[in-house]
Amino acid sequence: MLKTAQPLLKVENLSIGFSQYFRGTQKRVIQPISNLQVDIEAGEIVAVLGASGSGKSLLAHAILGILPTNAICSGSIIYRGEELTEKRKAGLRGREISFIPQSVNYLDPLMPMGRQVQIGLDKQSAQEKQQRLFAHYGLKESDGKLYPHELSGGMLRRVLFATSVREGVKLVIADEPTPGIHPQALAEILKQLRQFAREGAGVMLITHDIMSAVKIADRVAVINDGQTIEVSQVSAFSGTGEQLKTDYARRLWRALPQNGFTYRELGWEA
Ligand SMILES: Nc1ncnc2c1ncn2[C@@H]1O[C@H](COP(=O)(O)OP(=O)(O)OP(=O)(O)O)[C@@H](O)[C@H]1O
Ligand code: NI
Predict the structure, then answer these.
(1) DSSP per-residue string spanning 110-171
(2) Which of 58, 73, 178 to mutate to test the pocket of ligand 1 (most atoms within 8 A of CB)?
(3) What is residue 266's predicted lDDT score, i.e. its pLDDT?
(4) 175 pLDDT higher than 90
(5) What's the number of domains the chain is made of?
(6) Which pLDDT score, from 0 to 100, does residue 180 have?
(7) 33 in a structural domain
(8) pTM: predicted TM-score of the whole model, two decimal places
(9) How remote is the CA of residue 47 from the centroid of ligand 2, in Å?
(10) Which of 69, 58, 60 is nearest to 31 (CA)?
(11) Which ligand has the nearest atom to the CA of 52?
């Protein structure tokens, strides 16, 4: 891949904390993310791999500008050469920067599915495009009139995917898009992410599934306790992991069932 001087997205020294009350009145700050780094080139898929609670969703939400209001955030997020301010995030979100959230709760419970997929689409052709997306994701035209509670979990995930397909999308953030999904649907989703990249978008695939990461990513960023442990080319995840830079990543790789160890040794509950 051609290296450009400036990556599409560069997250540097990102720290996120929350101020919390405990014992009623005392305040303390918890720091789920500290000094996290990751960057993505246009046309590249970077997997962000980390155990549950390691800070993956917070990273996604920081890039998108949808952190809870009590979050204390510092560091820099540079997108296309410029600081991604909260105002810029709001303007790009759902358009140039698209998001496939971890939870189907991100869908509006009070809005029919068809309208949710039309958000961010060019008004004149929105309906036609939405219908094409529905067909592409195996949803029926009549499903467009249904509300989230009337659809199955699998269908909702497909709707979430449809909301991320936008003309001119340059960055796709997919937060665990594959939980509990059967293998064929998983292959389909990974193929779609690859397609985004082929069309020139940068893709961040957040996952705790090392196999999905290795199957699809160009590079893998391993995070633990809100810190970047290692960023490596995907080719380093092979053999005995001798090309990996850190012991942590090597243990993670070797813990795969086919590599002989178990996740439990890492205390990693996938
Ligand atoms: N609003 C919040 N207030 C306080 N702590 C929070 C808040 N949101 C997240 N955290 C804490 O930050 C840490 C990271 O959370 P995050 O959701 O980013 O993890 P994750 O890597 O996405 O995990 P999972 O794989 O389970 O989705 C967790 O310990 C979580 O409890
Ligand atoms: Ni998460």
Answers:
(1) TS-HHHHHHTTS-GGGHHHHHHHHHHHTT--GGGGG--GGGS-HHHHHHHHHHHH--TT--E
(2) 58
(3) 52
(4) yes
(5) 1
(6) 65
(7) no
(8) 0.90
(9) 13
(10) 58
(11) 1
**Size of the chain, expressed as the number of residues it contains:** 270
**Res. 210: pLDDT tops 70:** yes
Residue recorded with tokens 């101020």: 19
Residue type, 59: L
pLDDT at residue 87 in the model: 96
Question: Mind listing the pLDDT tens digit for each residue in 231-265?
Answer: 999 999 999 899 999 999 999 998 887 775 444 55
CA 256 to each of CA 82, 169, 215, 219: distance values in angstroms, whole numbers, following the listed order:
39, 34, 14, 18
pLDDT band of 193, cuts 50, 70, 90 = very high
Within-domain flag for 142: yes
Ligand 1 neighbours (beta carbon < 6 A) = 18, 30, 32, 50, 52-58, 68, 102, 208
82-102 pLDDT, tens digit per residue, is 999 999 999 999 889 999 988
Tell whether 181 is covered by a domain. Answer: no
User: What is the best residue among 11, 14, 16, 18 to mutate for testing ligand 1's pocket, by most ligand atoms within 8 Å of CB?
Assistant: 18
- Answer yes or no: are the C-beta atoms of 45 and 194 closer than 8 Å: yes
Q: For the sheet containing 202-207, what is the strand order?
A: 97-100, 171-175, 202-207, 45-49, 219-224, 227-233
Ligand 1 atom index nearest CA of 208: 25
Cβ proximity of 41 and 10 under 8 Å? no
Query: Residues with Cβ within 5 Å of ion ligand 2?
Result: 56-57, 102
Half-sphere exposure of 194 (CA within 13 A, CB side): 13
Residue 88 forms part of a structural domain? no
pLDDT on residue 209: 87
ipTM of the complex: 0.99
- Residue ranges making up the domain that contains 116: 103-167
Structure tokens at 6: 């400036």
